[in-house]
Amino acid sequence: MYQRDVEKVVNAILDTIADALAQGGRAEIRGFGSFAVKKRDARTGRNPRTGEAVSISEKVVPVFKTGKEMRQRLNATSPKHPRKKVEPAATNINGFVDA
Question: With left for phi above 0 and alpha for psi between -120 and 50, is residue 8 left, alpha or beta?
Answer without folding.
Answer: alpha
